[in-house]
Design goal:
This protein is of the alpha+beta class. The chain contains four helices and four strands. Helices cover about 20% and strands about 10% of the residues. A four-stranded mixed β-sheet has the order 3-2-1-4, covered by helices on one side.
């Protein structure tokens, strides 16, 4: 909800529509044309040059852009903080995608789980692979002191952030309004 609210503010401020990427868009950007486990190959020996993760993060996230970018110039696609996508998470999502789908999208119907990609500063190398997928749970808000729990806080998720995209084709004003009207959901 906070990421969508930020995108709405950005749209109202600039007149340019931004949103969270779909899972497919996120993976496409992370792979940067590669078909290996990581955009730089299959071996983890070079991961330290590209990502902050359990072995090198000192237990916290870092300033963006301190590691090497992928081939398309995108920084921190792996590690540092995991990133929200706009998709509902399904463990069998790859089996549900139609064979010729170009940009599959699982529109959220429920608050949990949502797809999270990229792995974070506290993850092992396997969680940072281009195809690795995570998901949200109510535990991300577990220690939120508010009753009811906040739609904004992720008190148990210091490893989670977001990246926004500007779609190549701008949606119609009606589609944009519909996107921003999606109400926040409670736990």
């Amino acid at each position: 909800y906070a990421a969508r609210a930020y995108c709405k503010w950005l749209y109202q401020t600039t007149g340019i529509f931004y949103r969270l990427p779909t899972e497919a868009e996120w993976e496409y950007a992370a792979r940067a044309g590669s078909n290996t486990s990581y955009y730089f190959g299959n071996e983890t020996k070079d991961l330290e040059q590209y990502a902050w993760y359990f072995d090198n993060s000192d237990g916290t996230y870092k300033k963006v852009g301190l590691k090497k970018p992928n081939q398309w110039g995108l920084y921190d696609m792996y590690g540092n903080v995991s990133e929200w996508t706009s998709d509902q998470y399904f463990s069998d999502a790859y089996q549900k995608i139609p064979t010729k789908a170009i940009d599959p999208y699982f529109q959220p119907k429920d608050l949990y789980p949502h797809s999270i990609r990229g792995g974070g500063w506290d993850d092992d190398p396997e969680a940072l692979r281009s195809s690795a997928r995570g998901y949200s749970t109510p535990k991300l808000k577990q220690i939120d002191p508010q009753i009811p729990k906040s739609k904004w806080w992720m008190t148990n998720a210091p490893f989670l952030g977001f990246r926004i995209v500007r779609p190549l084709k701008t949606p119609s004003p009606e589609e944009i309004e519909k996107y921003f009207e999606m109400p926040p959901k409670d736990i």
